[in-house]
């Protein structure tokens, strides 16, 4: 990942049961991306869920905005070792998006408008654990932070919370994503410091 924000102020270590091992707190929101920030207008934005059978469910921006909205507050933890506490978002729960989807999938892959992918077990995106969010701290989500919409999966390292989200595909087998194929851990639990595959 590259593109650290100029406003990033550095390390503030703290003893807390909310900060995973090896992490430090920041009050900033560093910007780290695998490539340039895409420009995606809401007129062109859609979100798609594709079941393992090929069944597709698609929402445009207006349809998505009409879905029930939630305002989760969560701590987030980046693999580059910063943590940020009590971040507040607004968006649609993945449970809502899956309500009409007939699936027995064991895995999911999140896709983005710039071609990035990241994988996770299906069980990790249900039961109020994941969202597609369009606001951060009461404001529309800025493009550098994934706007107009990003995936939010706060209990795993933040590379799993893909920016500029466009789709989730459901699978019977695991399909490693961009960083996972490059050597990052397949799961990414910050509390277990699952940063990289074994051997790194």
Q: Total helix count?
A: 3
Q: What's the helical proportion of residues? A: under 10%
Low-pLDDT regions = 1-11
For the record, what CATH class applies? Answer: Alpha Beta
Instruction: Calculate the terminal CA-CA distance, rounded to whole Å.
Output: 17 Å
Q: Find the CATH superfamily.
A: Oxidoreductase, molybdopterin-binding domain
Shape: globular
Rg to the nearest angstrom?
Answer: 16 Å
InterPro entries: OxRdtase_Mopterin-bd_dom, OxRdtase_Mopterin-bd_sf
Pfam families: Oxidored_molyb
Region (Disordered): 1-30
Organism: Glycomyces lechevalierae
Question: Characteristics of this structure?
Answer:
200 residues; mainly beta; Sulfite Oxidase, Chain A, domain 2; 5-stranded mixed sheet; 3 helices; 11 strands; 29% strand; disordered N terminus; DMSO/TMAO reductase YedYZ molybdopterin-dependent catalytic subunit; OxRdtase_Mopterin-bd_dom; OxRdtase_Mopterin-bd_sf
Protein architecture, described:
The protein is mainly β and 200 residues long. The chain has one domain: Oxidoreductase, molybdopterin-binding domain (Sulfite Oxidase, Chain A, domain 2, Alpha-Beta Complex). Helix content is 6%, strand content 29%. Strands 1, 4, 5, 8, 9 and 10 form a 6-stranded mixed sheet that branches. The chain has a 5-stranded mixed sheet with strand order 3-2-11-6-7. It is globular, with a radius of gyration of 16 Å. The two termini are 17 Å apart. 32% of the residues are buried. The N terminus is likely disordered. It comes from Glycomyces lechevalierae. This is DMSO/TMAO reductase YedYZ molybdopterin-dependent catalytic subunit. InterPro entries: OxRdtase_Mopterin-bd_dom, OxRdtase_Mopterin-bd_sf.
